Predict the 3D structure of the following.
Amino acid sequence: MENYKALNRNKEAGSTHSLLAKGMVPGIIYGKGSEPTKIALEDKILKKLMHTGSFYSTIIDIEVNGKVEKILPKQLQYHPVSDKLIHFDFLRVQENTKVNVEIPIEFLNQEKCPGLKKGGVLNTVRRLVELSCNANNIPSKLEFDLIDSEIGDAVKISNINLPEGVIPTISDRDFVIATLVPPTVEVETKTEETAEDGSEESGEEKSEDKKEDSSDKKEENKESK
């Protein structure tokens, strides 16, 4: 694993403003039972890490004053106007450190899924699932095989094979991750056709009503004469 060198933010490092002007982003490393460490990382290094696609679920080696620490990204702060990254929070972790991480879900064999072949639509309720696990046992992703899934099926967390020692943070229910629903186009078409039929029937009824009113008026005129 690559080490990323960080600057120790002591008095000589300069103010937050001067660090940002130099292309450095100030941040902090904290952890249970340890003193927080103020550091700064190059903006380009943070952007490189952020674009990996699994920034918040990847343990990163940070070198501070020659000492390598394992951290887990926890929070990024941006300037409210410029949207520029201005601060970060990293969690210091050991192998037995319990962490909560959001892990993406990948659906396998979508091209072979019977329900999708019949025109069904995969409605993803959760793209990420928050899990609780040891820092040394963070899965890179969760997977579910759609090879036997039909329209009307629901994928729940109990259908996902989780690594040993990894549990969802939501523990009070078997929550839904995705559903395989019928195609929506047909429903919309039928609704439009029904609306058109209703308009035609309504038009015909109005026409008949007008004819009846006209006939009634003619009869009344004859009687008055």
